[in-house]
Design goal:
Layout (H helix, E strand, L loop, with lengths): L3 H9 L5 H22 L3 H21 L20 E3 H14 L2 H9 L13 E3 L5 E3 L7 H5 L3 E4 L5 E4 L2 H9 L3 H7 L3 H9 L9 E3 H19 L6
Antiparallel strand pairs: 1-6, 2-3, 4-5
Helix pairs in contact: 1-2, 2-4, 2-10, 3-4, 4-10, 5-10
Amino acid sequence: MANLQRNHAVCRGLTTKRRFCNQFFPIMEDNLRNQLDEHFEGVAQLRNFYIKLDIEISKISNKYNFHCKNGCGACCMGNAINKEATVFELLPLAIELEISGKSNKYLEILENEDCPKNVCVCVVFVDNQKGLGHCGEYKYRPLVCRLFGDSMYHEKNNVVDFIGCHWLKELYENSLNKKQLHDLLPKMSETVFEGRCFSDNSYDTVIDINSALKTALELVKMKHDLIDGKLEF
């Protein structure tokens, strides 16, 4: 497993053995993913929860034509300090970054982050230099990112309202299907609670998204080293 990323690089330079590589490395990746998932209680269940939540939201969005602007990324561009998640929510992403060989890149950025915390964006945000952008790891984003713009929340006096950017709020308010969206979109607080319930409470402290990812990456890297026998306890 320690040589997984190195072997990937070798295979990219081959032509005659590319078919073998395409069959062999997904198996290695799946084995490592399963081993890492087993080290963190509830992560496999969280992955399934993410998949089911995406399917549920997609069905509603497609049925009522309620979507974000393509390539907008405005919700990602805000200060990362204001986007909160638990380390547990970021473990699936950290595992995928470790498997793909990108974890060191992000750890280095996070460890040497020299921007004031109140102006730092999420570390996986991809800026297209035109005032827009997108999430670079969309499939493994945490709950706050999955639900913002696609959920309802409880205000004071138990009023349930839509949570999203100004553009989506306007779309919601003017939608002919507002009642259906109100009734069918997931409730943010309930959904977040459900997703975090898979954790054994070891990694359930709520912190800013960059700090949560940094801790998740460090934990996954340590577990990977244990699997490879680089660390002993």
